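Recall the central idea of this unit: under ordinary conditions, the amino acid sequence of a chain determines the structure it adopts. In this exercise we apply that idea directly, starting from the sequence alone.
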Amino acid sequence: MSDFASSGGPSGTGRGERRGRRWWILGGVIAGGLVLTGAVTTAVRLLAGQGDDGAGDRDREAADTRWAAGITPEWMSEQMGIDIPATAQTPRAAYEVTSRFDTGLLTFTLSRTEAQAYLKRNPPTGRWLEPTAQTDVAAHDFAHLGLPEPEKFTTGMRYGYVCPDATAPVGESAEPYGMYGGTSEEDCVRLYAHDYMPGRTRIYLRAHYEPGISPLPAGMSPRAD
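Accordingly, the structure predicted from this sequence is:
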């Protein structure tokens, strides 16, 4: 046998050893690829699971949201602590129950002179404000009553926070839910007055309540109407 062959050249033991190393390297690459694929698959499943949980939470929250049936303007006026004038036309009310907070709505129309007297009897904490355009306001609350949301109006509109309870805080502190009107404990509501046509003004009232603070009276169902 030549010195080349005996030294582990292309033929002989050296070739077998190199083949063994190549297979070992290839096996390592395949194993590493399988591990990486498994990790990616697990991560995707985890992310998908998180997405399902988020969607599930939204579905559960939507399922817990319903408009109570049988709500009358008189009952809603009593909850808000703000009267409905005897001369008011087309009074409407609604009450939405959710898992986070409840929303009470009341609206009616008055003549311009009647509206001025009504706003004087129910002054805001501070002063009346004029809104800026809010094009991103979703049609939800007053849309349930067949009306546009008051935040969408910029002409002939004024609004403020009205607190019939004299002990209620004044100013921004009257909004314990930030953008919302108040709880039944502080008895503050957001009042909008919109001069929607010559000689007529529509009053919008919205209040928010913690769930359970103002339970629905007997005979008023929490079922969606």
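Strands lie at 66-67, 89-97, 102-111, 157-162, 189-197, 200-209.
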